[in-house]
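User: I'm putting together notes for a lab meeting next week and I want to include a structural view of one of the chains we've been expressing. I don't have a solved structure, so I'd like a prediction I can at least talk through. The sequence is below, exactly as it appears in our construct file.
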Amino acid sequence: MDTDEMRRQLQTLTDRAEITDLMDRYLRSLDEGVFDDEWARAFHTEDVTAEMPIGTVKGRDALLDRVRRGMALFDRTVHMGTNAVVRVDGARATARGAQLSTHVLADGSGDVFVSAGHTEAELVRTADGWRISASALRVVWTQGPPPQLPDDLAQAPAV
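Assistant: Thanks for the context. Below is the predicted structure for the 159-residue chain, given as structure tokens.
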């Protein structure tokens, strides 16, 4: 193996570690509940597209609004991600991982809603590091009562 090949392999390993860290920090941030412009810029490109159970949005500002409103439906949450498969191709990458999310409803009932599925993401390397340019949460199963969605979230149109 020559030096150039070793450098390419090291860069790929570094990229994979940075992307896995970004995805882990993103899930942890959902539980911390601070959703501001800095949060949105830390994880997403300006033109991000995100498919979520409460609708599909395009653009960082729209995503920030949707996450704020969606997470307000819960008193507490724990999001866990595992089994990440990251593929890097230059300045672009894809990531797929399993996700298990536990939510205590904010309606005062104390009910717990659990969802499990897979997150798929497309990422781009920016001057500030890797950022998510597209994501989709594919729910496989749920347990417990889901939150009552406001009409505008329940009927959220796809972009």
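A couple of points you could mention at the meeting. The chain has a mean pLDDT of 95. The helical segments are 3-32, 37-43, 60-71, 151-154.

User: Perfect, that's what I needed.
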